[in-house]
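Shift notes (night). Ran BTB domain-containing protein while the centrifuge was going.
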Amino acid sequence: MACAAASERLRKERRMLHNLVEEEVRARRTGFILPIEILGDADGGSRLAVWLVTLRAEPAQCIEAPPGHHVPNFRMAAVALPLLQGAGSETDAFGQAYCFLPLSMATGLNAHVSANFALTANRRDLWRRSDDEASSESSFRAAWNEALLEGTCPKAYCDCMELYAALALGAEPPFPTDLDLPHPISVQSMWAVWPSTGLGHFSEIPRLVSQELVARDAKVFLDADANFLSAKSALLYPDARYSKLDASLRAAISRLCLAGRRRRVVQVPEALCELLDIKGVTWLQPQSLSNMLKGLDTKVSAQEADCLVDYLLSGGSGPLSLLHGLTLCPLLSGKLGTFWPAGEQTPEYMWSEDPSMQELVNKEFVDPSSGTFALLKPRVANSRLNLRLLNSRALPSLVESVLPAAWRHKREVKLLADGSICVDDAPNPTCQPTPKLQKVPKPKVQKQNLRYESRKRSGYEDWDDYDDEEDYPENAPAQKCPPAPDFSETKPMVSVNKESELEVVVRKCVLLWKLAEDVSDKGSNPVQHLQDFPCIPVIAERVGVRLVSMQGAAGLLSVEDFASEEVKVLADFGVLLARPGPRLRTALGVHRSAALAALTKAVERSKSKPPLKQRWHLGLKDMRLDLDKALPLKRLVSSIALRGTRKDMERSLALPIFETCGPFAVPMLPGTCVITPSAEWDAWLEPHVGDFLISWTETAKTTLREFGIQRSPLPEFLARVCAPRAGLFDQELSLAFLEAVASLGAALWKKNGVQKDLAAIATACEAAPVVVFPNRRCRCCDLVDPADADLQEMLPDFAMLPPPEYCSPVVLSVLRRAGLKSLADEDVFLTAARHIEENSGSDAFAGGALLKQLAARFQSLKWTSRSFTSLSRLRIFPAVACQGAYPPKAASSTMTVALDSPCTLFQHAPIAFTQLTLLHPSFNQWPKPLLQRFGALKDPPPLPVVVANLIEVARRWKEAEAAETAETATRQGIVEKHLAALKSMSTRSHATQTGVQHSLCTIKFLVLHDGSLVSPCETFDALHDGRAESSDEDVRHHDGQATFASQASPSCRAIQDTDGLASKAAKSSKKARWGLPQYLRPYRRLLLGIAGPAVQSVQQLPTIYVQPAPSNPVPDFIQASLNRPELADVIFVVDPLGSPRMLYAHRLVLAAASEHFHAAFSTYAEAAEARCRVELPDWVLARPMLWRCLHTSTRAMMPQKPSKWPSGWVRTSTMGRDCHSEGRIGASLLTLRWGRICAAYYDSLNSISWTT
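Came back to this:
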């Protein structure tokens, strides 16, 4: 499309030139100088006026006259310009119109115009267009005048101006003339004769004159050097605006225009600017200047280049495409770069406000101090120029070009003393260069515009420059860009192996952080591109550290936050210092108060003197700092903490700034210092832990008061300081410690809910050797309570009393709580008991004192059952030896026994001396709860023991000789006590009573008056006959014995009933007398129960004879008909799918036994069938006993209920009985279908009574 438009425009222009040449051949023009002397001035003199007159005659063939009218052969016009007017003439006089003679109309031009006009009859006006027909005479005359005013007169005026310019320069006239110039013409007056305005018919002549001059390419444009130029050689600019341009810009434009396309700047008066804004005239504008400078090697200074860029961009708002191809970019190297559109094949210039960034990239940088930089700065980010911003977006590639890839995810880079580099305490990894990449061929240069090439071949390179201002860059020729640098050869990877190379990397890292800090985009985080590498430069090196990563920059501080003295203190402690920007500060949390945490870590890393007394310093962290180093540190920390937050105050406590009683300072942390509750403790502990003991002098107290530190509470001090070292105290410190513990009260001795500090104090008192002897130390558990001094006598080698200094009530209260040995302690008591057991020998009373203490302190003892069990196993308890047929009367023969075997008190000797061990009579005064703690002690002896003892005594008496009178009384007393013990038998169970009866009924233990022994059975009649004299038995012995008759065994109750019958019979006879000893009278009923007839009777039990039931053949017949097919009307089929078996039943039996069968055989369809066939389900196969039951009709062989009922079955009761409770199955279906009623039939068989 562009080529077609260009071809059409070229054709039209050639046609226009052809017509112009043809007219020039036919037209005639001439010029001459007309001097006129004017006489008759006011002063009577004369003056000379010189006029430049040009004549022009053009053929008039193109105009057709109406019939009958004569048409002149030529259109003739003349123009007279005043070259010199006499003195007193009016220089500003307007031109006059002529037609052979002057006319009464002014032209408004700077010259007189004469032509063969068609005038009106009165010669006052020219013919004008009207509504007449085109062929009328009026239209012909108007057309004639128009041809003169639009063609001949402007051309004649142009001839005059060309002749005027030739005369001014003294050049050859452009056409034949007869000139004899009396005076020279001023060149500067050329713009004065240029037509600017016109009146009436002549108003269009200035515009037409300007167009004709441009079309002729007449040299009538006057430049600043007084040279006349044609329109194609001139670059027009308004005179008023051109004077306001910078001088360097005007000089550069003039020089560049002349060097570029041989143009000169022409300053046009403001009055003519509008007239010259026509086609063919080039005005000095940014677009035209850019077109002129394209491809030109501009050799201008940087200042001129800035002025040109400022003009081209109209102060910064113009299109940046005007800069394409212009070498106007000021560089830091002093050269000028060429602006190009951004692309892969264009050289790039780096853009950064910091000139030092040039060290990062080996490319040309735009000069940030230039005016071009300031002009393009707001627009460079979105421009399409070959300017690359060096900002955070370039960080990923810059990091790879600055730091070795092997440093990724490393924490720090150190420079060792020998000059070697180590990364994370390891040798610097060797960097291998990458292989060269294959060279990429360059793309072909785009072909230039065909229209531009055709113009160059035709020789008309500049004729349409004015049009380029409108449609550039669409119709502009393609610019050739210089080839971009060849990046196919890649550099080797970054290798840092020397100190000098490391210094270069450090400087580049500083520049990288500058880029990261200069980011203004919202939401961008350039720090993330640098966080994987050790790229933070360290100012104050710590052991040669030069670079650290964000992970290794913990504790990094900023130099700007501290004074010079403070920086020195931080550097002495090895704190990392840097100059971070705002972003790095935010990412690392760098602020002044962070120095506290950094100093804490630095102090922990530093080494201090080892403790001098390891045992005394046990548990103390050695974070001491020499006082001369601690004082500057204290001033720094105080200045930060006192102006900071509460958290800063807490962090300050971790720094060694608090003075001690020694030449050191320590932190105020648990385990790093010692704070006492009083000055007395300071004096006691200073010889031992003075280097860690906080000083409370006036100077130190000021610091402590600033940080709000007070003396330690007594419990905390005792728990954290004294408790771990209680075993090291001398006697004075030990007594002070124990007295301090006593002041805390009994709270620390609780077993549950004790505070941690109090528990630690109690543990120290119990476990540490706090009792100091002259030559040894002992724990509290190794000593004996002075109140139990007799324990030392019992255990001379085992027990030891504390020194007299520890026997004060206050100290003893703690020692006793801490485990001082006492008989109240179960372990101590058992230990003493074991010692007595081992060393007592044959002395039965060796443990008497120990047992006496047990009885006395029993109410306050809180021993466990296990302790009493362990004590009962020791043979330390005195007992009485028992031999013979009579219980001992006193402790004549003693021995030691253990209470783990059955034993009893001495007071129960008559009823248990043959069965149980008898304890010494001293145990009778023991509290009963204490006796109950020994499980083997029988108090009172149980009933079986009494019975066995009575049997054994009877045996021994039987074997002995006949008793004497005294022995008889003794024996009767023993029997009476046994009978008194047996009276409790009425409250025992029936089995127990029966057992006692069987055991004693035939035993001869009853002692008569003559000393003979008889059994209860032998005295039965005597006991029975003496009932009359024992009528008050229940009254006299109502204390627990009256209920025996009602609770006796059945045999006894039968005897009692017989006794009642006998008593009735005895009322008629005389009363019987009591013939037994008197001591047996209270126990008559007891003895009758023992000697009852149920035990001794020899008769057999009565036999009851029952007559057989009368015979009834119906049940026998029904039973015989079971499972027989003759009369059966119901058939049960077992396992119908396998090998079926038939079971025959009867409806009558089933209906009588079960209501379900009754309903089935009377209501449903089965009632109409002669014989019902029921196929039983598979689960019936699991009951083979069912068939046997059907044949035998015995309940003993009935199967038990199934372990799992089939689905759909419900257990029910049949015939009013719960068959399940009797071990039978009662089940039926709710739906009563034949396939599920076998359980109901099974139930019906069980519900029939087959026997009478």
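Residues 137-169 form the longest helix (33 residues). The mean pLDDT is 76.
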